[in-house]
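@channel anyone free to eyeball this complex?
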Amino acid sequence: MNPTAKRTKLRDIHRLPFGWNALLHLIAGGFALSCLFPFALAIVISFTDENTLALNGYSIFPEKWSMFAYDYIFRTGDQLLHSYLVTLSVTAIGTLLTVALTALYAYALSRKAFKYRKGFTFLAFFTMLFGGGLVPSYIIVAQMLHLKDTIWALILPMALNAFNIVILRTFFQTMIPDAIVESGKIDGAGEYKILFRLVLPLALPGLATIALFSTLGFWNDWFNALLYIDSNRMVPLQAMLMRIESSMQFIIQNSSILNSGESREMLASLPQETSRMAMVVLATGPIVLAYPFFQRYFVEGLTIGAVKD
Amino acid sequence: MRTFFRDLNKNKAFLTMVLPGAIWFIVFCYLPMPGALLAFKQYRFDQGGFFAALLHGEWTGFKNFEFLFRAEDAYIITRNTVLYNLVFIFLGLALSVSMAIILFNLTQKRWAKFYQTAMFLPYFLSWVIVSYFAFSFLSVDKGILNHILAWFGAEPIQWYADKTYWPFILVFMSMWKSVGYSSVIYLAAISGIDKSYYEAAMIDGASKWQQTTRITVPLIKPMMIILTILAIGGIFRADFGLFFQIPRDSGLLFPVTNVIDTYVYRSMKVLGDFGLASAAGFYQSVVGFVLVIGANWFVKKVNEEQALF
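replying in thread with the prediction:
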């Protein structure tokens, strides 16, 4: 047998038999489709004519299309705009704060020259094992710090976590050669100068991972709003969607009052079905459009997190 | 004493780096910890704030716990939390490893990449958004599922009022949201396996199936074991969003959807019973802590390197 023939044969073994390959495509493709379908359905619903929807229910092939939902939102969407602004500010400020706090803390822990690093590592690490629970945390934020109905209630409780510190510390330790820090010291640079001029530029991929995780966390957060926000002016996007949903639920569950004038007024004040889906689309759109480009960093972050020093 | 100050001075750059983070940990993680003792106190709002309340509150011993455990509540929420988590962990492990192996073996790599990106999408959505998606399937009069049932001539199902289906719905939703993301982690591990193993196996004429069972699985087994044990350490903590958002707070479903986290939240924010909420929270914190320590001890036995501490 000549070598070329053998190589072809090897490659042939490397390929799955056609039938198996098709089956695997079916499984993986089917699941992938099931992940995309609900989002596609939401988009279609948001473009469906309201009366068609009331008549035929949700469908991926509506009889009549309409732009009404978006029209309605942009005409009356004061609350949506407001919530968008809250979410954008929380995400921007929160991400900056998280990255700054995490990078400073993690860098100090990554340096063997820092005498108290063991103690501060423990201070961060222990919070991964034990927590006081929801009630005391709630009391601290709401009653001691008086953060209720302020933007800080949405930012501060999520500003730092030990897991991010561990990821970034590992990144500093494995990706930044000691020689770089040493060279800085020989040149007489202080610790801050070494960090900002030499280490951080090299650590950009690690910082990007932390920044992306925290952007996602702040953008998607509704839990802190559930606990600490009562005022309409401070409701972020996700929490706004949640509120619309629970007022609907409230009206449906209390159907005895359904015919009273009060409940009809409540129903009328809520956005229509298609408009609600349009809000869902607008709230997720930025993430869905952006994440394929950043996917790599998420995967990297997840795999770094699995590696310990 | 003098050496202590000299050390402080020498480390002052590092100390200023960890300072903001350390303050954050103390305020948001350590201050709430003694607050867990509220579980043994008669809670009252005190003029002097949180600590005055904690100090002056009357000790009530295990009264809050008695209340929690006398009612069926403690049993139901513990059962739900632990059983759901067990199913999530083991089904999730089986599905995500299988999916990673499928993606790895697909002959068309471009498609594998596309599937992976699609499967990753649900990870980026909040549970609020996912609950809107779920509603488009489960809505009684407009939902896709009841449409399909009607098409087959079956009676519509009151999804949000009938608890029979919820264990399956919750497991399905959890898998839908997490399998894509965890399979990405396993796929990264599989892709990291030295290609020469597979080449040697191919030369010996091993089939794809044999390569999978004899090379791929044994080599990622340590990672599977570690991640599973660590997940078991967190078995007392439920995914609040899943159990709170997807069932739309429907009281009829509580027997199969109430978990420790939702119970604590509802006791505190809906019932305003801080004592009961703290008792349930304390129960969760302590058992959770023991489980994490136990899980880590176990990981240490399996593989010293991978232990958390």
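from a first look: Chain A has a mean pLDDT of 85.
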